[in-house]
Write a structure and sequence with these properties.
Elements: H1 4-23, H2 26-30, E1 33-41, E2 44-48, E3 69-80, E4 84-94, E5 100-113, E6 116-124
Parallel strand pairs: 1-6
Antiparallel strand pairs: 1-2, 3-4, 4-5, 5-6
Length: about 130
């Protein structure tokens, strides 16, 4: 089975994830998660239990201090089933002037839970 419908839905979820992230819309961004959600980056495992976990200044501190927007550079399906899709991704972070902060390889796992597609696991080399 090719699971084209699942892949299309999971890809839309990643589109919505990036759109909300770039808009700095925490509520819309968190709506693209299936909780609990896991992030493994910078040698730290973080379990995000529920919406509201991200602080309001998420987009203006730490690694995102000089960040303006991000874009997907690659999203290749590794595995797919009816309720879960694994993606090999690379995203790029940009400054306001369009210069590149960095390119970051990552794995995203998007799941369908209670009929909703959301990001369940992210593992990246991003700070």
């Amino acid at each position: 089975m090719d699971h084209a419908d699942a892949i299309a839905a999971a890809t839309r979820c990643l589109d919505d994830f990036m759109t909300a992230f770039n808009a700095r819309d925490l509520a819309a961004w968190e709506a693209t998660f299936n909780f609990p959600s896991v992030r493994l980056a910078s040698n730290a495992l973080v379990i995000i239990d529920k919406p509201g976990w991200h602080p309001p200044d998420t987009f203006s501190r730490g690694a995102l201090k000089e960040w303006h927007h991000s874009a997907w550079e690659r999203r290749a399906v590794i595995h797919a089933g009816p309720d879960k899709v694994h993606f090999d991704t690379r995203f790029v972070r940009f400054r306001a002037d369009g210069s590149v902060i960095g390119h970051f390889d990552s794995i995203y796992i998007v799941t369908r839970e209670n009929g909703l597609w959301g990001v369940k696991v992210r593992s990246s080399f991003a700070p």
